[in-house]
Write a structure and sequence with these properties.
Number of strands of chain A: 3
Strand content of chain A: 5-15%
Oligomer: homotrimer
Radius of gyration of chain A: 13 Å
CATH superfamily of chain A: DsrEFH-like
Distance between the termini of chain A: 11 Å
Structural class of chain A: alpha/beta
Order of helices and strands of chain A: HEHEHEH
Number of domains of chain A: 1
Number of helices of chain A: 4
Chain lengths: 97, 97, 97
């Protein structure tokens, strides 16, 4: 929703966007239940237009979510916190939902 | 409160401050009820000494708040998320309350 | 936990880390109760390997926590919000838990 607002405002292709899911948020990538299925479909569409979706391996482990069960468009990184810090040092702005 | 602490610490005029209200937070600009009325008065005072208050149009729409009903000191932007990202690229620090 | 994940990922000594406790979070520095005692011990260990722990004086005051009651490894700053902004202007990435 936020990302759609952002893309509508700046225009597609005018910004690099990465969504890093940390902690409990990684469960958003599980397409169980109707609500989550719709969410995953929305993310799939955003992934197709260039938005990166990243999951924290520590968080997946803590929630017993197998890497293999994630949608194909999700990249797994060892630690979400490092990814967030690294992206900021690369010039990305940070927005905490 | 946070902003007052900040201004007391760095001194007025020594920092540019912008408060971007996104999502449910835009309702803070509605001066209905006693609590909110006091909050709006505090913001009014901060606006007078140079603090910018910004509301996300998407959020206003989602909560059926008319732009015209907002206090005069509030600026409306199409998408709060873009505003937050843009300010960071301009060198603003980001603080999520 | 997050900090441990971060250090495991980037390696100790490869990043400067500062934890700024603001608002209610300053109570984490009080080692009353078993849970908090364990937390303070974890922080103590992180402090020994170079992580800075900072508490906001405004927040301490608001919660009637005496500066003297804090663990030795905690630094008190007048306003946490200024510290967070300053660190970002110094090049620190910001991560809101």
């Amino acid at each position: 929703m936020n990302i759609n607002n952002f893309l509508n405002d700046v225009g597609q292709g005018n910004a690099d966007i990465e969504v890093v899911a940390n902690g409990e948020a990684v469960s958003a990538f599980k397409s169980n239940g109707q609500t989550n299925k719709m969410l995953v479909e929305q993310m799939q569409k955003l992934a197709e237009i260039g938005v990166n979706f990243v999951a924290c391996q520590n968080a997946l482990k803590a929630q017993s979510i197998a890497k293999e069960s994630l949608p194909e468009f999700v990249t797994v990184v060892p630690a979400g916190i490092t990814e967030i810090a690294r992206k900021q040092t690369e010039g990305f702005a940070y927005i905490k939902p």
